[in-house]
Amino acid sequence: MNLNFISHQIDKVWDYLSDPELWLAILGGAIRIVLILLISWLVVGIVRKIVDKLFVQRQHGPIRIPKRREDTLKKLIKSVVAYVVYFMALVMILEVFNFEIGPLLAGAGVAGLAIGFGAQNLVRDIITGFFIIFEDQFSVGDYVLAAGIEGTVEEIGLRTSKIVSWTGELNIVPNGNIDQVINYSARNGLSVVDVNVPYESDVAQVEQIIQEVAETLPDKYEFILGVPEIIGVQNLDVSHFVVRVIAETEPVFQWAGERNIRKEIQDKLYKSGIKIPSPRIVTYSEQEMDQLTQERQQNRG
User: Fold this and answer.
1) Is there a single domain that holds both residue 70 and residue 157?
2) Residue 209 belongs to what domain range?
3) Which of these, 57, 66, 70, 151, is most buried using a 10 Å CB contact count?
4) Final residue belonging to a domain, choices 65, 80, 114
5) CA-CA distance, 43 to 40, in Å (whole number)?
6) Total number of domains in the chain
7) Please, is 189 exposed, middle or buried when counting C-beta atoms within 10 Å of its C-beta (0-12, 13-18, 19+)?
8) Sequence-distant (≥ 6) Cβ neighbours of residue 189 within 8 angstroms
Protein backbone atom coordinates (compact mmCIF):
# COMPACT_ATOMS: atom_id res chain seq x y z
CA MET A 1 0.00 0.00 0.00
CA ASN A 2 2.81 2.35 0.87
CA LEU A 3 4.49 1.58 -2.43
CA ASN A 4 1.32 2.38 -4.33
CA PHE A 5 0.97 5.69 -2.46
CA ILE A 6 4.58 6.66 -3.20
CA SER A 7 4.19 5.66 -6.84
CA HIS A 8 1.03 7.73 -7.10
CA GLN A 9 2.76 10.80 -5.65
CA ILE A 10 5.70 10.40 -8.03
CA ASP A 11 3.30 10.22 -10.96
CA LYS A 12 1.59 13.42 -9.82
CA VAL A 13 4.92 15.25 -9.51
CA TRP A 14 6.02 14.00 -12.90
CA ASP A 15 2.77 15.09 -14.52
CA TYR A 16 3.16 18.52 -12.93
CA LEU A 17 6.78 18.95 -14.03
CA SER A 18 6.13 17.65 -17.53
CA ASP A 19 3.28 20.06 -18.12
CA PRO A 20 4.33 22.42 -20.99
CA GLU A 21 2.23 25.23 -19.55
CA LEU A 22 4.33 25.20 -16.37
CA TRP A 23 7.57 25.68 -18.26
CA LEU A 24 6.01 28.32 -20.48
CA ALA A 25 4.90 30.20 -17.36
CA ILE A 26 8.38 29.90 -15.79
CA LEU A 27 10.03 31.03 -19.01
CA GLY A 28 7.61 33.93 -19.36
CA GLY A 29 8.20 34.97 -15.73
CA ALA A 30 11.97 34.78 -16.13
CA ILE A 31 11.82 36.91 -19.27
CA ARG A 32 9.64 39.48 -17.49
CA ILE A 33 12.04 39.64 -14.53
CA VAL A 34 15.03 40.09 -16.83
CA LEU A 35 13.20 42.82 -18.74
CA ILE A 36 12.21 44.59 -15.50
CA LEU A 37 15.81 44.55 -14.24
CA LEU A 38 17.17 45.64 -17.61
CA ILE A 39 14.70 48.50 -17.97
CA SER A 40 15.37 49.61 -14.37
CA TRP A 41 19.11 49.63 -15.02
CA LEU A 42 18.61 51.62 -18.23
CA VAL A 43 16.30 54.14 -16.53
CA VAL A 44 18.80 54.73 -13.70
CA GLY A 45 21.64 55.14 -16.20
CA ILE A 46 19.67 57.55 -18.40
CA VAL A 47 18.57 59.66 -15.42
CA ARG A 48 22.16 59.87 -14.18
CA LYS A 49 23.32 61.15 -17.56
CA ILE A 50 20.45 63.65 -17.68
CA VAL A 51 21.38 64.93 -14.21
CA ASP A 52 25.03 65.35 -15.25
CA LYS A 53 23.96 67.19 -18.40
CA LEU A 54 21.59 69.50 -16.51
CA PHE A 55 24.31 70.53 -14.08
CA VAL A 56 26.75 71.14 -16.94
CA GLN A 57 24.20 73.45 -18.59
CA ARG A 58 23.60 75.23 -15.27
CA GLN A 59 27.30 76.14 -15.14
CA HIS A 60 26.77 78.33 -18.21
CA GLY A 61 23.51 79.83 -16.96
CA PRO A 62 22.85 83.02 -14.98
CA ILE A 63 22.48 81.15 -11.67
CA ARG A 64 25.53 79.21 -10.58
CA ILE A 65 26.23 77.13 -7.50
CA PRO A 66 29.58 76.15 -5.96
CA LYS A 67 31.10 72.95 -7.29
CA ARG A 68 31.05 71.26 -3.87
CA ARG A 69 27.31 71.97 -3.62
CA GLU A 70 26.81 70.73 -7.17
CA ASP A 71 28.58 67.42 -6.44
CA THR A 72 26.46 66.93 -3.33
CA LEU A 73 23.16 67.52 -5.13
CA LYS A 74 24.12 65.32 -8.08
CA LYS A 75 24.98 62.36 -5.87
CA LEU A 76 21.84 62.83 -3.80
CA ILE A 77 19.50 63.03 -6.82
CA LYS A 78 21.10 59.96 -8.40
CA SER A 79 20.81 58.04 -5.14
CA VAL A 80 17.13 58.92 -4.62
CA VAL A 81 16.25 58.03 -8.23
CA ALA A 82 18.02 54.67 -7.89
CA TYR A 83 16.12 53.87 -4.66
CA VAL A 84 12.75 54.73 -6.22
CA VAL A 85 13.33 52.86 -9.50
CA TYR A 86 14.67 49.71 -7.84
CA PHE A 87 11.83 49.71 -5.31
CA MET A 88 9.31 49.86 -8.16
CA ALA A 89 11.21 47.05 -9.88
CA LEU A 90 10.96 44.93 -6.73
CA VAL A 91 7.19 45.49 -6.58
CA MET A 92 6.82 44.48 -10.24
CA ILE A 93 8.92 41.34 -9.70
CA LEU A 94 6.72 40.36 -6.76
CA GLU A 95 3.69 40.72 -9.03
CA VAL A 96 5.32 38.29 -11.46
CA PHE A 97 5.21 35.71 -8.64
CA ASN A 98 1.50 36.56 -8.10
CA PHE A 99 2.08 38.30 -4.78
CA GLU A 100 -0.81 40.54 -3.77
CA ILE A 101 0.84 43.94 -3.28
CA GLY A 102 -2.18 45.60 -1.60
CA PRO A 103 -2.42 43.27 1.41
CA LEU A 104 1.38 43.23 1.59
CA LEU A 105 1.53 47.02 1.86
CA ALA A 106 -1.32 47.03 4.37
CA GLY A 107 0.53 44.47 6.44
CA ALA A 108 3.64 46.56 6.16
CA GLY A 109 1.68 49.51 7.54
CA VAL A 110 0.54 47.51 10.55
CA ALA A 111 4.04 46.15 11.05
CA GLY A 112 5.36 49.69 10.71
CA LEU A 113 3.29 50.74 13.70
CA ALA A 114 4.67 47.82 15.67
CA ILE A 115 8.28 48.65 14.90
CA GLY A 116 7.79 52.43 14.95
CA PHE A 117 9.86 52.88 18.08
CA GLY A 118 12.63 50.77 16.61
CA ALA A 119 12.66 52.91 13.46
CA GLN A 120 13.17 56.18 15.32
CA ASN A 121 16.88 56.18 14.55
CA LEU A 122 16.19 55.68 10.85
CA VAL A 123 13.73 58.57 10.79
CA ARG A 124 16.17 60.75 12.74
CA ASP A 125 18.97 59.93 10.26
CA ILE A 126 16.81 60.87 7.27
CA ILE A 127 15.55 64.13 8.81
CA THR A 128 19.07 65.14 9.85
CA GLY A 129 20.38 64.29 6.39
CA PHE A 130 17.71 66.48 4.82
CA PHE A 131 18.69 69.47 6.98
CA ILE A 132 22.41 68.91 6.35
CA ILE A 133 21.76 69.22 2.62
CA PHE A 134 19.10 71.94 2.84
CA GLU A 135 21.21 74.17 5.14
CA ASP A 136 24.41 73.38 3.24
CA GLN A 137 26.21 72.51 6.48
CA PHE A 138 28.86 70.74 4.44
CA SER A 139 29.22 69.40 0.91
CA VAL A 140 31.16 66.76 -1.00
CA GLY A 141 34.86 67.62 -0.95
CA ASP A 142 34.74 69.64 2.28
CA TYR A 143 37.18 68.88 5.09
CA VAL A 144 35.14 68.54 8.28
CA LEU A 145 35.08 67.32 11.84
CA ALA A 146 31.74 65.58 12.35
CA ALA A 147 30.66 63.05 14.97
CA GLY A 148 34.25 62.94 16.21
CA ILE A 149 35.58 62.00 12.76
CA GLU A 150 37.86 64.32 10.81
CA GLY A 151 38.34 63.99 7.08
CA THR A 152 37.10 64.79 3.59
CA VAL A 153 33.40 64.31 2.75
CA GLU A 154 33.07 61.76 -0.04
CA GLU A 155 29.29 61.37 -0.16
CA ILE A 156 26.18 62.72 1.57
CA GLY A 157 23.04 60.61 1.58
CA LEU A 158 19.69 60.95 3.29
CA ARG A 159 20.63 58.30 5.87
CA THR A 160 24.43 58.26 6.05
CA SER A 161 27.42 60.37 5.12
CA LYS A 162 30.82 59.03 4.06
CA ILE A 163 33.96 60.72 5.39
CA VAL A 164 37.48 59.70 4.35
CA SER A 165 40.11 60.26 7.04
CA TRP A 166 43.39 61.83 5.97
CA THR A 167 45.03 58.42 6.56
CA GLY A 168 42.65 56.80 4.05
CA GLU A 169 39.97 55.14 6.20
CA LEU A 170 36.38 55.36 4.94
CA ASN A 171 33.97 56.25 7.75
CA ILE A 172 30.25 55.72 7.20
CA VAL A 173 28.42 57.91 9.71
CA PRO A 174 24.64 57.84 10.36
CA ASN A 175 23.41 61.39 9.89
CA GLY A 176 21.57 61.25 13.20
CA ASN A 177 24.92 60.99 15.00
CA ILE A 178 26.11 64.30 13.53
CA ASP A 179 25.11 66.79 16.21
CA GLN A 180 27.97 69.26 15.67
CA VAL A 181 30.05 70.04 12.59
CA ILE A 182 33.30 71.96 12.14
CA ASN A 183 33.66 72.78 8.45
CA TYR A 184 37.25 73.76 7.68
CA SER A 185 36.42 74.39 4.02
CA ALA A 186 33.71 77.01 4.57
CA ARG A 187 36.07 79.92 5.29
CA ASN A 188 39.70 80.89 4.80
CA GLY A 189 42.11 79.38 7.30
CA LEU A 190 44.48 81.12 9.73
CA SER A 191 48.01 79.85 10.28
CA VAL A 192 49.37 80.63 13.75
CA VAL A 193 53.13 80.18 14.20
CA ASP A 194 55.00 80.73 17.47
CA VAL A 195 58.75 81.29 17.05
CA ASN A 196 60.97 80.60 20.07
CA VAL A 197 63.90 83.04 20.28
CA PRO A 198 66.71 83.04 22.89
CA TYR A 199 66.88 86.00 25.28
CA GLU A 200 70.35 86.84 23.95
CA SER A 201 68.74 88.01 20.69
CA ASP A 202 67.46 91.51 19.99
CA VAL A 203 63.67 91.62 19.57
CA ALA A 204 63.73 94.31 16.90
CA GLN A 205 66.34 92.43 14.87
CA VAL A 206 64.37 89.18 15.08
CA GLU A 207 61.14 90.88 13.99
CA GLN A 208 62.98 92.52 11.08
CA ILE A 209 64.27 89.13 9.91
CA ILE A 210 60.81 87.58 10.21
CA GLN A 211 59.29 90.50 8.28
CA GLU A 212 61.78 89.97 5.44
CA VAL A 213 60.80 86.30 5.29
CA ALA A 214 57.07 87.10 5.48
CA GLU A 215 57.19 89.39 2.46
CA THR A 216 58.53 86.56 0.28
CA LEU A 217 55.99 83.92 1.30
CA PRO A 218 52.95 84.88 -0.89
CA ASP A 219 55.09 84.50 -4.01
CA LYS A 220 56.43 81.12 -2.89
CA TYR A 221 53.15 79.60 -1.71
CA GLU A 222 49.92 80.36 -3.58
CA PHE A 223 47.74 79.26 -0.67
CA ILE A 224 49.14 82.01 1.60
CA LEU A 225 46.89 85.05 1.06
CA GLY A 226 48.82 88.22 1.70
CA VAL A 227 51.92 88.96 3.76
CA PRO A 228 51.89 87.22 7.18
CA GLU A 229 51.50 89.58 10.13
CA ILE A 230 53.87 89.75 13.12
CA ILE A 231 51.75 90.02 16.27
CA GLY A 232 54.78 90.57 18.51
CA VAL A 233 56.15 88.97 21.67
CA GLN A 234 53.45 86.53 22.73
CA ASN A 235 55.03 84.95 25.80
CA LEU A 236 58.12 84.94 28.04
CA ASP A 237 59.42 81.48 28.87
CA VAL A 238 62.27 80.26 31.05
CA SER A 239 64.93 80.24 28.34
CA HIS A 240 63.32 82.20 25.50
CA PHE A 241 60.64 84.61 24.41
CA VAL A 242 57.95 83.77 21.84
CA VAL A 243 57.17 85.83 18.74
CA ARG A 244 53.79 85.06 17.15
CA VAL A 245 53.15 85.25 13.41
CA ILE A 246 49.75 84.79 11.74
CA ALA A 247 48.80 84.38 8.08
CA GLU A 248 45.51 83.99 6.20
CA THR A 249 45.39 80.97 3.91
CA GLU A 250 43.01 79.29 1.52
CA PRO A 251 40.53 76.90 3.19
CA VAL A 252 42.14 73.77 4.69
CA PHE A 253 45.66 75.08 3.99
CA GLN A 254 46.25 76.56 7.45
CA TRP A 255 48.30 73.55 8.57
CA ALA A 256 50.42 73.56 5.43
CA GLY A 257 50.88 77.30 5.96
CA GLU A 258 52.15 76.76 9.51
CA ARG A 259 54.66 74.13 8.41
CA ASN A 260 56.07 76.22 5.57
CA ILE A 261 56.15 79.50 7.50
CA ARG A 262 57.92 77.81 10.40
CA LYS A 263 60.46 76.26 8.04
CA GLU A 264 61.23 79.51 6.19
CA ILE A 265 61.64 81.51 9.42
CA GLN A 266 63.83 78.84 11.00
CA ASP A 267 66.13 78.75 7.96
CA LYS A 268 66.47 82.53 7.90
CA LEU A 269 67.13 82.83 11.64
CA TYR A 270 69.74 80.09 11.50
CA LYS A 271 71.54 81.79 8.61
CA SER A 272 71.45 85.05 10.58
CA GLY A 273 73.19 83.41 13.52
CA ILE A 274 70.10 83.13 15.73
CA LYS A 275 69.58 79.59 16.94
CA ILE A 276 66.42 78.13 18.35
CA PRO A 277 66.83 77.87 22.15
CA SER A 278 67.20 74.48 23.77
CA PRO A 279 67.35 73.34 27.42
CA ARG A 280 70.74 73.94 29.03
CA ILE A 281 72.49 72.33 31.98
CA VAL A 282 75.20 74.31 33.80
CA THR A 283 77.56 72.44 36.17
CA TYR A 284 79.82 74.00 38.79
CA SER A 285 82.80 72.50 40.58
CA GLU A 286 82.93 72.59 44.37
CA GLN A 287 85.55 75.36 44.26
CA GLU A 288 83.38 77.45 41.91
CA MET A 289 80.37 76.96 44.17
CA ASP A 290 82.35 78.16 47.19
CA GLN A 291 83.49 81.21 45.23
CA LEU A 292 79.93 82.02 44.16
CA THR A 293 78.73 81.66 47.75
CA GLN A 294 81.40 84.07 48.99
CA GLU A 295 80.53 86.61 46.29
CA ARG A 296 76.83 86.46 47.23
CA GLN A 297 77.64 86.98 50.90
CA GLN A 298 79.85 89.95 50.06
CA ASN A 299 77.11 91.47 47.90
CA ARG A 300 74.59 91.08 50.73
CA GLY A 301 77.06 92.70 53.16
Assistant:
1) no
2) 189-271
3) 151
4) 114
5) 5
6) 3
7) buried
8) 248, 249, 250, 251, 252, 253, 254, 255, 257
State whether 153 and 207 are in the same domain: no
pLDDT per residue rounded down to tens, the chain (301 residues): 555 656 656 656 666 566 666 566 677 778 888 888 899 899 888 888 888 887 776 555 444 566 666 777 777 778 778 888 888 888 888 877 777 666 655 555 545 544 555 567 777 887 888 888 878 888 888 999 999 999 999 988 878 899 999 899 999 999 999 989 999 998 899 999 999 998 888 999 999 999 999 999 999 999 999 999 999 999 888 788 999 999 999 999 999 999 999 999 999 999 998 887 766 666 767 777 777 777 777 766 5
Residue 178 and residue 194 in one domain: no
Q: Which of 260, 187, 191, 184 is nearest to 219 (CA)?
A: 260
103 in the same domain as 53? yes
- Domain of 101, CATH number, reads 1.10.287.1260
pTM above 0.70, yes or no: no
Cβ contacts of residue 123 below 8 Å, gap of 6+? none
Burial group, residue 28, by CB count within 10 angstroms (0-12, 13-18, 19+): exposed
Residue 19, beta-bridge partner list: none
Q: Which helix (H) or strand (E) holds 38?
A: helix 20-59
d(CA 160, CA 121): 12
Nearest Cα to Cα of residue 125 among 171, 179, 69, 182: 179
Residues 233 and 160 in one domain: no
Exposed / middle / buried, residue 164 (Cβ in 10 Å: 0-12, 13-18, 19+): middle
Residues 46 and 105 in one domain: yes
Is residue 284 domain-resident?
Answer: no
Separation CA 151–CA 216 (nearest Å): 31
The verdict on residue 256 lying in a domain is yes
| Chain centroid to CA 214 | 32
